[in-house]
């Protein structure tokens, strides 16, 4: 009898695990739909798409600007507060997190689950371990809340895939802004683009996706200056604070399926639009990867990918969520990354 019970439990366990994962995937999809609704409500209220970031690398990303539309006005108000900053609020650098916020305020940011996928994490999640007030533009040790989603940022022109306004061909670009003229006053800004910027159509455009974080690296932020020669730091950058973009290669808030890059090969500068596939959970979870391969590989931490078996969930501009197969050709992923390439690709 005991043996029979053991066999039945062994047979039932995979089914139970599959049911739990199905529930987690549904919850993840519902959270992404809430993000889509928040983006549309933002657009209706402020007449534009939420900007990738308010201004320079020290300012809040789109994720902070969406807080009021995700029923988290209190968190938004802690970003807006201009009192410590002569240049006018929306600052999310380490010294703001380490010194300005009270302990309970930091806990409130880290406890917000709206930007968390339940298949990857639950409960409090934040980089509380930035050992100094290093506020450099690459923000590889950015202190603050951690999450599981990234907005699309793809470049068709200009080197690399950062927040360059002219090179970006994805929905989210830096806002139009003016810094405060004196202490105690706030920065003024407005969205740069409306939905008309997405000329291929909202139903043909990725807005947000689950970002790739390799197995065993959840919660790890390198807390070190960026170095192209340090592959481990580069891959870990995706688990720093999602409230910061950095000036170039920080990948906590945004990811790409396609980027225009220049790099040297045999002493000659090469230029190309690189396309990146959807990552599997174990892609680049190891440490002994050749530096050059890790730096230029499709499986670096600039990619999208989830812990859901076989798919990565993506939010489209029309507010729908699709489970996109990890085997989807990069040509299709690239087409859904650019707002105005005119290519009518079809997701499998």
Name the average pLDDT.
Answer: 82
Shape: globular
How much of the sequence is in beta strands? 5-15%
End-to-end separation: 48 Å
Unreliable stretches? 287-292
Radius of gyration: 20 Å
Category by helix and strand content:
alpha+beta
Total number of domains: 1
The proportion of residues forming helix, as a percent range, comes to: 25-40%
Number of strands: 11
Q: Write down the secondary-structure element order.
A: HHHHHEEEEEEHEEEHEEH
The strands making up the biggest β-sheet line up spatially as: 7-3-6-10-11
State the helix count: 8
Give a quick account of the main beta sheet: strands, pairing sense, barrel closure. 5 strands, mixed
In words, what does this structure look like?
- It is built from 8 helices and 11 strands.
- The chain is α+β, with helices and mostly antiparallel strands and 348 residues long.
- It has one domain.
- The strands form 4 sheets. Strands 7-3-6-10-11 form a 5-stranded mixed beta sheet, with helices on one face. It has a two-stranded antiparallel ribbon with strand order 1-2.
Fold topology:
Blueprint: H1 2-46, H2 62-65, H3 73-80, H4 94-100, H5 103-111, E1 126-127, E2 144-145, E3 149-152, E4 176-178, E5 188-190, E6 206-210, H6 231-236, E7 254-255, E8 258-265, E9 268-275, H7 291-296, E10 311-316, E11 321-325, H8 330-335
Parallel strand pairs: 3-7
Antiparallel strand pairs: 1-2, 3-6, 4-5, 6-10, 8-9, 10-11
């Amino acid at each position: 009898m005991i043996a029979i019970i053991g066999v039945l439990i062994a047979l039932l366990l995979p089914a139970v695990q599959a049911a739990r994962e199905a529930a987690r995937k549904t919850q993840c999809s519902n959270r992404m739909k809430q993000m889509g609704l928040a983006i549309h409500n933002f657009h209706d209220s402020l007449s534009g798409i939420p900007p990738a970031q308010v201004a320079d690398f020290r300012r809040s990303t789109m994720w902070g600007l969406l807080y009021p539309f995700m029923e988290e006005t209190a968190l938004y108000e802690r970003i807006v507060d201009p009192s410590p900053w002569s240049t006018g609020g929306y600052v999310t650098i380490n010294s703001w997190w380490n010194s300005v916020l009270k302990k309970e305020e930091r806990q409130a940011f880290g406890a917000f689950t709206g930007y968390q996928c339940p298949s990857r994490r639950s409960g409090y999640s934040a980089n509380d371990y930035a050992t100094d007030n290093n506020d450099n533009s690459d923000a590889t040790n950015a202190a603050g809340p951690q999450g599981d989603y990234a907005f699309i940022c793809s470049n068709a022109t200009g080197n690399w895939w950062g927040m360059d306004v002219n090179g970006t061909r994805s929905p989210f670009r830096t806002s139009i802004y003016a810094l405060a003229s004196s202490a105690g006053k706030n920065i003024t800004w407005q969205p740069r683009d409306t939905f008309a910027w997405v000329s291929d159509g909202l139903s043909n455009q990725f807005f947000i996706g689950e970002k790739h974080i390799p197995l065993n690296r959840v919660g790890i932020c390198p807390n070190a200056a960026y170095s192209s020669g340090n592959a481990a730091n580069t891959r870990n950058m995706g688990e720093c604070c999602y409230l910061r973009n950095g000036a170039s290669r920080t990948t906590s808030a945004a990811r790409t399926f396609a980027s225009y890059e220049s790099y040297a090969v045999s002493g000659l500068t090469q230029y190309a639009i690189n396309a990146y596939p959807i990552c599997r959970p174990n892609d680049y979870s190891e440490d002994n990867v050749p530096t050059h391969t890790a730096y230029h590989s499709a499986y670096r931490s600039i990619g999208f990918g989830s812990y859901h078996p076989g798919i990565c969930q993506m939010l489209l501009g029309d507010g729908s969520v699709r489970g996109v197969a990890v085997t989807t050709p990069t040509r299709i992923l690239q087409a859904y990354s650019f707002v105005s390439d005119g290519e009518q690709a079809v997701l499998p």
